[in-house]
Amino acid sequence: MDQTDISELEQSVARLSFYYTDAGELLTAIRKEHPKASKKDIVLAALSAMIGLAEHDPAAAKRLHSLAMDNRGANQGG
Known about the structure:
This protein is mostly helical. It has one domain. It is globular. It has 4 helices and no strands. The protein starts with a helix and ends in an 8-residue tail after the last helix. It has helices spanning 3-16, 23-33, 39-53, 58-70. α1 packs across α3. The longest helix has 15 residues, at 39-53. 68% of the residues lie in helices and 0% in strands.
């Protein structure tokens, strides 16, 4: 993925984290918007978004942390 795609993915992850409380549901929603993104890309975007949200929205940051931790070590293809 190029930098633009990663930025768009991060924005989607941050936005969708407000609507889904379950990490699995959040991952599914992200994959619907970004079907070509690997789990690794999604996890990295979640971590990046989590850092940005941690100060302003701890609940969203916690959901993104769950997504990243539940999918750590996932292979690239997903």
